[in-house]
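Q: Could you predict the 3D structure of Sodium-independent sulfate anion transporter?
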Amino acid sequence: MTEKKLASLGKAEEGKSGKLTMNQNSNTRSVSDIVQARARKFFSKKTLHQRLPITQWLPKYNLESLEGDMVAGLTVGLTVIPQGIAYALVAGLTPNYGLYSAFMGCFVYMFLGSCKDITIGPTAIMSIMTHEYSVDKNPDYAILLCFLSGIIIFAAAVCNLGFLITFISKPVIAGFTSAAAISIASSQLKGLFGLSYQSESVIEAFSKLFENIGDTRWQDLTLGLCSIVVLLLMRKLKDLKITKVQPDDSTYVRIGRKMLFLISVGRNAIVVIVAGIIAFAAKSDTFTLTGDIEAGLPAFKAPPFSTWDNGTEIYFSEMVSNVGAGIIIIPLISILESIAIASAFAGGKTIDATQEMYALGMCNILGAFVQSIPVTGSFSRTAVNSTSGVKTPAGGIVTGLLVVLALAFLTPYFKYIPKATLSAVIICAVIFMVEYETVRPIWKARQLDQIPLWGTFLTCLFWKLEFGILVGVGINLAILLYGVARPKVNVSTVLRKDESGPHYVLVEPRSGLFFPSVDHIRGQVTKAGVGPAESSVMVVVDCKHFTGIDYTATKGMKSLCQDFERRHQPLVFTNVTPGVERGLCSLIDDIVIARSSDQIDAAYKSASSNAVAENLYSGDEAIRRVSRSEGDPESLGPLLEPMNSARPIIVPAHNP
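A: Sure. Here are the predicted structure tokens for Sodium-independent sulfate anion transporter:
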């Protein structure tokens, strides 16, 4: 007998081990299948086209595309050179760093960018943020910020964190952009007036301007104001009918119209060149000049992970500590600006935000190797690129090459550019970033959105730009959470068919049932029960807006049912989804769930006749069984006979 038992045990063990081996093999095969499937998807043609967009448009490239890209690339190049020099000064750096930042992004985006119109390079907002976090105007901090920003943006793309941008609403972006534009313009007033002082805020900029107004250099102010007037007039030139090519125009007329258009979009370069010639011809002390700019191309080398300050070496960890919140704020603003521009120029197409983040991350990472400051998409240059007729991202190659040629051969002549003219270029670029026109539409759409708009704007303007974004996002989240915690609840009385009295009181919460809102909903249902329902009429809770339920909300609903039970008042839940029903029934045994108006009527008849469920079933188990049955309410039979119970009336749930 013992031998038989041992033999049977041995066979059982062999069977178990065999099953275990089969399960292990099955698990191994399933893991390997998953890995292979992921690998096939990653190395598929679709993924190649998605992550390397140049493979989509390059095979279709033709002479028409080449012509459009050449014209647009040259036009943008004439725009970015003076802007790059000016934005470097905004960042508190020497002008050559603005040019170093203007070409690598163009090259990289050609391969990875998914929007043909976008141009990557230095912008006004990125420059002022770089100035905010570059310690003692040390360019090593700016370059390190560029590298770290690229790493963070690329990592966010890998982790598919682009959705976080959706938490920053349009009013917050409008408030931030407008405040940044005013801050940048106010910082350029000293150059316009020929003054020299340091300021960190809008109030300080105007305060020091009035303090030093007596030292104004009239030559600089005159040249600066004339530059602003000419720039604004030339900006309007492209909108005139005379620059629009007509189908019946002759070749010479077409060339003339295009020349006028190019003069308009290349206005920054033209004004800077003319001002430089005037300064070169005048005496050396007539205007405040840019000064010597380091000639030649930047060396291709790794970004600085240490720097020197007054003979003391500062290592990477201390540099990161000195930069502080800039490591997060600058990548965030960079992503925001670039994706907003891509969406604006998408032409109705869906934007792949993840791919744009890949491209932007690589532009900053590789840009740091040529001593670039943080870069992103430029709205003004993207608009110029689009109106110039760009066909593909290859237009960036022409722009980048033009900047490289300027660095190689023209830097000795940049020292004659007057600072007043550069200030005029920046002011004319940023004044149109003030989004005053959005205030009225926001008011019409939703007046509550004015709070994050003005909260962001005022905080950015009078405190700090990065804190303004945080305040705006915080206000938005507070508004969203308040809506979740205090949802609207509609209460109405449904009369009998003969209108002789109330049939029941209908309570309809307008949003989901989760822990922040459960106390509010419970209070509103209780208020309806003792108010319109006068503690006796049946109350029906319409759950059609409940998408889910959590433990805290279930406990709250259980307490609500107990409150109604103590008042001998019927409470019915209707339009309950399966998920919400499972949650409610997990803790509440005696819950009334009606799936149709007939079931509500049946519950009303039972309540009005004061029936007693215990006449048929005794104890809690009977009630549980009835409440979870799957039968038709019509088949309840004696259950709907007159009863006299303090418990809620049980209407069985069933699948319709």
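Q: Anything worth pointing out?
A: The two ends are 58 Å apart (CA to CA).
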